[in-house]
Amino acid sequence: MLRLLFYLLVLHTVLAFTSAFIFDEEIHQFIEGPLLYILIVLFFLTLFVKNRLLAKAASQDEWLPIVNEKGEVVGKATRRSCHSGSMLLHPVVHLHLINEQGDIYLQKRSMKKNFLPGMWDTAVGGHVALGEKIEDALKRETFEELGITKFKARFLGSYVWESSCERELVFPFLCTSHDAIHINNDEVDEGRFWSRKEIEQNAAANIFTPNFLHEYNRLLKKIK
Length: 224
Known about the structure:
Nucleoside Triphosphate Pyrophosphohydrolase; alpha+beta; two-stranded antiparallel ribbon; 39% helix; 2 domains; 224 residues; 10 strands
């Protein structure tokens, strides 16, 4: 914005100089005096409106905690900022559902999603809100996406996941006991259990999210 102000002042100087040769004295006096003040007022008015709009947008955005690799909160940022390539480390939760046969439940991401729409992904995944405990975030996301209210889960150990636009501290959990699944179609297009063989046969078919494949190879292959 300072560059814009500089250009406006340069433009005014050029206009004031040339107007002395082109226009009559009255117009020249207007350009040399009042026009300068009008341009300055318009500049600061534009700056004020822009800052108000940015502040309003930020206030309506979801705030996320910024953490270190130990999971300790060291700051906060908006969801938009975390997804903009800033690589601010923020926590997320994942829940894997595995049935008695060892099959893994996957959700197909809604086509309404901005990121990786229509790809098969972890059964439950979502951000931890600012001030929210990991366990509470897991319960909230599980209910929001799959309608599950009662389940037992064990922690599999956190790790850092980095994509082209964000950096997450992932808290994955394994669930083998839960009540009925009721998919929320605003969040998920569909879901079903996949056998390990199906997953491995389709691993190169570009139908799974990179994060799920990473987590499958890192954690789930070892679980019987």
